[in-house]
């Protein structure tokens, strides 16, 4: 298949692209700079420009691009950046996909479990939307793919949990704390942190290219954990304690409104993946922690 990928330089994209190529697929990455090979094409979501000719003959598109939610303090300006980077990019991809003849079979768009309410209760893809800022972002983000849906493309929204990897992503921040032995509970530590390893995340995205799971799909392990237990599992792999608490007020002072995501509780179950027979290589922390900290 010919697969087009945006966000190929990010944590997930940089693992997905070689995975797809190893499986024999032709992968074209969309980049904002001048293309440096025949495997790249130019796009500029902010300006609404994309190399349509390069996308001809595409079978599937995986759209991962978007500004990082934890990269900056949430000023009003950066909150607009978070929203616009997702809505504008998804809208451009969806409109382009809808206009291609023939249109790609499948569009997989990145999304997030922050769609769901802050709650200790289990949630599945059938659960209602929350009321936080990121819940509104996710609703607009997924809604921007409507032109592709209307054109008959199978559109899957990959609602991702916290992605754990040996390097990069959230572990670039958590890893040093774990190794220093200062990875105790944040706030109460009882909030649920749904997670997935990078390896399983890439495998799940690849599974969505089959096109038989349109709509929201939770990309999370089947065993969510409390924040306290997750950090303890990681710390135990490097023989470090995980007991010193980080007061919630200190978290809010340090990172501002983004703290609402850090201390929120999301106990997400990947119901649709499980029902489709997807098997996780790291279904629990017992399997995941050695891989992540190795």
Question: What does this molecule look like?
Answer:
This protein is of the alpha/beta class. It has one domain (about 1-294): Rossmann fold. Helices cover about 35% and strands about 20% of the residues. The protein is built from eleven helices and 14 strands. The strands form four sheets. Strands 4-3-2-1-5-6-8-12 form an eight-stranded mixed β-sheet, with helices on both faces. Strands 7-14 form a two-stranded parallel ribbon. β1, α1 and β2 (about 25-30) form a beta-alpha-beta unit. The mean pLDDT is about 90.
Structure, briefly:
It contains eleven helices and 14 strands. By secondary structure, the chain is α/β, with parallel strands linked by helices. The strands form four sheets. An eight-stranded mixed β-sheet has the order 4-3-2-1-5-6-8-12, with helices on both faces. It has a two-stranded parallel ribbon with strand order 7-14. Strands 9-11 form a two-stranded parallel sheet.
Radius of gyration: 19 Å
CATH evolutionary superfamily: NAD(P)-binding Rossmann-like Domain
How many helices in DSSP terms? 11
Q: Which CATH class applies here? A: Alpha Beta
CATH architecture: 3-Layer(aba) Sandwich
**Series of secondary-structure elements, N-terminal to C-terminal:** EHEEEEHEEHHEEHEEHEEHHHEHH
**Biggest β-sheet description:** 8 strands, mixed
Tell me the CATH topology: Rossmann fold
Q: Taking all residues together, what is the mean pLDDT? A: 92
Class by alpha and beta content: alpha/beta
The 3D shape can be described as: globular
Give the N-to-C terminal Cα separation: 33 Å
Low-confidence stretches are: none
- The share of residues in extended strands comes to 15-25%
- Which strands sit side by side, in order, in the main sheet? 4-3-2-1-5-6-8-12
